[in-house]
Write a structure and sequence with these properties.
This protein is of the alpha/beta class. Among the domains are: about 1-70, 2-Layer Sandwich (Alpha-Beta Plaits), CATH 3.30.70; about 165-330, DHBP synthase. The chain is built from 22 helices and 29 strands. The strands form four sheets. Strands 4, 5, 6, 7, 8, 9, 10, 11, 12, 13 and 14 form an eleven-stranded mixed sheet that branches. Strands 21, 22, 23, 24, 25, 26, 27, 28 and 29 form a nine-stranded mixed sheet that branches. The protein has a six-stranded mixed sheet with strand order 15-18-17-16-19-20, with helices on both faces. Helix 13 crosses helix 22 (about 710-725), helix 15 (about 530-540) crosses helix 17 and helix 17 (about 570-580) crosses helix 18 (about 595-600). The chain is globular and about 90 Å long. About 50% of the residues are buried. Bound molecules: zinc ion (2 copies) and fe (iii) ion. The site of fe (iii) ion has 7 residues, from helix 13 and strand 21.
Length: about 725
C-alpha cells in the first residue's frame, strides 16, 4: 500500500489493525481512483483482497508524507493471518549467490515467503508477537525492513547471518558437530543414515531413496506400511519417478508447496508406497534447498512422530524422543509456535482434492454462504480437526492426527485455545459427533458445561453430507452418497454405507448396506480376514472357514455366541473384506489398507455383478451376498483378481447410481454430494461422477476440505447453524 500510494503521489498513513488494513489518503481524485484500482487489480501475489471499503473524510489534514503507523489491537478481529509460504524464486537466487550477504543462509525470507502461521503467537502480525522476537534485527536488516523500495520492507521474520537464527547439527547423542551443519547432514544421509530435519511446522525424518535404508527407517520409527512422501530436488527429479500433468505441476510449485499425489512412473518403489501413487513435494525451505543442492535428487521425508503421536517440533524433545530412530539432527534455534504437518492433495477435475489440509493452507479461511458466528465444531476422532466460525468465515484447524491419546488431545486443546485467541473468537455454541466415546465428544460436553453454552450433536454421515454441501456452497437439500469406514448411527450401530437425503437442518436415511458382522470388533479392522470370513459365511459359501486358516474354529465359535461381534453397515469394511477374499491383503497395518490396495489392483473394465436390494420400510438395503457369491465363483473359475476387483467396484458404483435414481424419482432432486473416506478411492470417485452425470445428476465433490473425517467439522458447523434456526 505504501509503495502504491507513493507511486500515485498520495500522502497520509496506513496501519495494520486487528480488523484489517486502514489507510487515510490525501490527493487528487484521479490519483485516488487509480490507487484504488491498483489495490483491487495489482495486489501482490500472496495477498488476498477480501473487500475494499472507502469513506470520504471532510476537511484536509495536510499530510506532507506517507507513513506507516504502529498497529493497534481492537475488539473486532477478522484479519487473516498468513499461512507459511515456501521460499520464493528471488530468495532462492540470493541463497545461491556468493556475492549476496545471505549466501547459503538457511533462514533467508522476504515479504513474499517464509514462516508465518507457525511462528505467530498473537495478532496483529508483528515481529514482537512471533517466535522471531528473540532475534533483534541488525542495522542492515533494519534498513531493509524500513525501506519501502526493498523486498523485505516490513517482512516480520527478516534476518541475516549476523542477527538471525542459526542452524546446528547434533549427533544421536546430542553432541554438536564441528563442520558445516548442512555438510554434516549430507554426509549422514549419503551414508544411509536417518536425519531429523526441522522444517517450518515440525520435524521430518529424512533418508535417501534406497530400499534397505527406507526399511530400516520404517522399522525404527515403527511405521507400518503407510506410504512415505518424497521430496524431489526439482521437476526433472519428479518426472523420473512420476507421471505429472501441468495441473499437478502447478500445485507442486504453488506457494503452499503441498505434497501432491502423483501416479508412479517407475515400478520397484513399493517400499515407498505400495499403491499406484507417490506423494511428492519440492524443497520448500532454504534448508531443504541447501540439502538438495548439496547432491540429493530426492529424499524420503516423513513426519517425525512415534506411532500415532503428533509430530515433534521442539529441539530437545526431538533429540530425546527420537534417540534410537534418528542418527543425526539438523535443527535450529527458531522456535515453532504452532506445529503444522505437510498438506497432501491430488488434483481431481482441475480442482484441489485434499487428503490432508494443513501447512500452506492453515489458517486460510473458508467462506460460507451464511453467517455461522460463534460456533466451535469439534470434528470426529480419526484425522481429527476442529473448526471455528466467525461471521461468514470458517476456519479449519490443521492436521492433528487421530484423537486417540492424551498427547493428541493436548495438541487439539492447545490449538483450539490458540486459534480462538488469534481470531478473537467468543464461542457461543458447540457442535460435536454423536459418538459417545470420542475424545472430541468428551471435550465438547465439558466445554458446553463449563462455559454454559448449547451443545449440538450431529450424526457423523449427516455431517459429511453437510460438509460437502458447504464445500460447494449448495443451499438446498440434496442426496448424498456417504461412504466411509465408520460413524455412529442414530440406532447405536456403526454406519458407513449410507445414502442420505437432507441438508443443514436435517436428513433422512434412504439407503444402506446389509450389516457386516465384525468378529472381535475393532480387531477386524486390522485382521481383515475376519471380515472376509464373516461376509462369506453370511453368503453361505462353503469353505468360508479356509480364509481364517487355523483360526477358523475360534472365529466360528465367536460368531455363533455373538460375543464381541458388532455389526456395521460400513462400506470401508466391505472393501476390506473383499480385499481379504481376493487375497490382496489379509492383515492391514493401518485402517483402510486393504481397500487402498484393492483400488490399485483393479483393472478397469465395465462388467459387474448383480445388484439386489431389500426394503425395510422406506430404507433400501443393498444385499451384497449375491455379489460375494458371484465374486467367489469368478475367482474359482480363474478370473484374474484385477478383473474381479474392478467388477466389484463397478457393482458398487452402479449400486450408488441406482440408489440415487430411485431416490430422485421419488423426491425429484437430482443433486448429489459424494463424501466420506471411501471417496479417496479415485476409481469409485471418477466412475460414479461420470455415471451420475450421464443420468442427469449434478454431482458435488469436495475441493476445499477433505472428504475424510478431517472435513467433518465444517459439516457440524453448518448443521449447528441450520439446526439452531
Ligand atoms: Zn522470498
Ligand atoms: Zn541481520
Ligand atoms: Fe467418516
Amino acid at each position: 500500500m505504501h509503495r502504491l500510494a507513493s507511486d500515485h503521489g498520495l500522502f497520509g498513513w496506513a496501519k495494520n489493525t486487528s480488523s484489517g488494513l486502514v489507510l487515510e489518503l490525501e490527493g487528487e481524485s484521479p490519483a485516488i481512483e487509480s490507487f484504488l484500482h491498483g489495490v483491487r487489480n495489482d495486489a501482490p501475489p500472496l495477498s488476498n483482497v477480501e473487500s475494499v471499503s472507502v469513506t470520504e473524510l471532510m476537511g484536509l489534514a495536510g499530510y506532507q508524507s506517507f507513513q506507516i503507523i504502529p498497529s493497534t489491537r481492537e475488539d473486532r478481529i477478522d484479519t487473516l493471518v498468513s499461512p507459511d509460504i515456501s521460499i520464493c524464486d528471488e530468495c532462492r537466487c540470493e541463497l545461491f549467490n556468493p556475492d549476496d550477504r545471505r549466501y547459503r543462509y538457511p533462514f533467508i525470507n522476504c515479504t513474499n515467503c517464509g514462516p508465518r502461521f507457525t511462528m505467530i503467537r498473537g495478532i496483529p502480525y508483528d515481529r514482537a508477537k512471533t517466535t522471531m522476537d528473540r532475534f533483534p534485527m541488525c542495522p542492515e536488516c533494519m534498513a531493509e525492513y524500513g525501506d519501502i523500495k526493498n523486498r523485505r520492507y516490513h517482512a516480520q521474520p527478516n534476518c541475516c547471518p549476523r542477527c538471525g537464527p542459526k542452524l546446528f547439527f547434533l549427533d544421536s547423542k546430542g553432541n554438536e558437530g564441528t563442520k558445516d551443519p548442512i555438510e554434516e547432514a549430507l554426509n549422514y544421509l549419503k551414508e544411509g543414515k536417518t536425519v531429523a530435519i526441522k522444517g517450518l511446522g515440525g520435524i521430518h525424518l529424512a533418508c535417501i531413496v534406497d530400499e534397505e535404508t527406507v526399511r530400516r527407517l520404517r522399522r525404527l520409527k515403527r511405521r507400518d506400511e503407510r506410504p512415505l512422501a518424497i521430496m524431489c530436488k526439482d521437476m526433472m527429479a519428479v518426472e523420473k519417478l512420476c507421471v505429472i500433468s501441468p495441473e499437478e505441476q502447478r500445485r507442486l510449485e504453488s506457494p503452499a508447496q503441498p505434497i501432491v499425489l502423483l501416479g508412479k512412473r517407475k515400478s520397484g518403489l513399493d517400499y515407498i508406497s505400495e499403491n499406484g501413487y507417490i506423494g511428492v513435494m519440492l524443497p520448500y525451505t532454504p534448508v531443504h534447498c541447501l540439502l538438495m543442492e548439496g547432491g540429493m535428487d530426492c529424499l524420503v521425508m516423513t513426519s517425525a512422530n512415534l506411532s500415532d503421536l503428533p509430530v515433534l517440533y521442539e529441539n530437545m524433545e526431538a533429540v530425546q524422543k527420537l534417540s534410537g530412530v534418528a542418527d543425526g539432527f539438523l535443527l535450529n534455534d527458531r522456535d515453532i509456535y504452532t506445529r503444522c504437518d505437510d498438506s497432501v492433495l491430488r488434483v481431481f477435475e482441475g480442482r484441489d482434492y485434499f487428503i490432508r489440509r494443513s501447512r500452506g493452507f492453515v489458517p486460510l479461511l473458508i467462506k460460507t454462504r451464511s453467517a455461522l458466528d460463534g460456533i466451535f465444531s469439534c470434528g470426529a476422532e480419526q484425522k481429527a480437526s476442529f473448526g471455528i466460525s466467525k461471521g461468514e468465515y470458517f476456519f479449519l484447524s490443521g492436521h492433528i492426527g487421530d484423537l486417540k491419546n492424551e498427547e493428541a488431545l493436548d495438541h487439539y486443546t492447545a490449538q483450539a485455545a490458540h486459534t480462538e485467541r488469534l481470531f478473537g473468537m467468543k464461542v457461543k455454541k458447540i457442535a460435536c459427533d454423536l459418538h459417545p466415546d470420542y475424545m472430541s465428544t468428551d471435550y465438547a460436553q465439558k466445554r458446553a458445561k463449563d462455559e454454559n453454552i448449547p451443545l449440538l450433536r450431529v450424526q457423523h454421515h449427516h455431517a459429511h453430507l453437510a460438509s460437502c454441501m458447504a464445500d460447494n456452497g449448495v443451499k438446498s437439500d440434496c442426496l448424498g452418497v456417504i461412504w466411509d469406514g465408520s460413524g455412529y448411527g442414530e440406532d447405536g450401530t456403526t454406519w458407513g454405507g449410507e445414502i442420505l437425503f437432507g441438508g443443514y437442518s436435517g436428513y433422512r436415511r434412504l439407503g444402506t448396506i446389509r450389516p457386516i458382522t465384525l468378529p472381535g470388533g475393532d480387531s477386524a479392522v486390522f485382521d481383515i480376514r475376519r471380515l472376509g470370513f464373516s461376509m462369506m459365511r453370511d453368503a453361505q459359501l462353503p469353505g468360508y472357514g479356509d480364509i481364517m486358516g487355523g483360526d477358523a474354529d475360534t472365529m466360528e465359535a465367536m460368531m455363533r455366541a455373538k460375543t464381541n461381534c458388532p455389526e456395521a453397515t460400513s462400506m470401508g469394511r466391505l472393501f476390506d473384506g473383499v480385499s481379504a477374499i481376493l487375497g490382496i491383503k489379509r492383515t492391514a497395518s493401518y485402517e483402510g489398507q486393504g481397500a487402498i490396495l484393492l483400488e490399485s489392483t483393479a483393472y478397469a473394465d465395465g462388467s459387474m455383478y448383480d445388484i439386489s436390494f431389500d426394503h425395510l420400510g422406506s430404507l433400501a438395503v443393498f444385499d451384497q451376498r449375491p455379489m460375494i457369491r458371484q465374486l467367489v465363483k469368478d475367482l474359482s473359475c480363474g478370473i484374474p483378481v484385477c478383473v474381479v476387483a474392478g467388477k466389484f467396484m463397478n457393482t458398487l458404483v452402479e449400486m450408488a447410481a441406482a440408489s440415487c435414481q430411485a431416490a430422485a424419482r421419488e423426491i425429484g432432486i437430482y443433486d448429489v454430494c459424494l463424501s466420506g473416506g471411501v471417496f479417496q478411492n479415485m476409481y469409485i470417485l471418477k466412475k460414479l461422477c461420470v455415471k451420475l452425470a450421464s443420468r442427469g445428476f449434478t454431482v458435488y465433490t469436495h475441493s476445499r476440505v477433505s472428504c475424510t473425517d478431517e472435513g467433518i467439522a465444517l459439516g457440524q458447523a453448518v448443521v449447528a447453524y441450520g439446526g439452531g434456526q
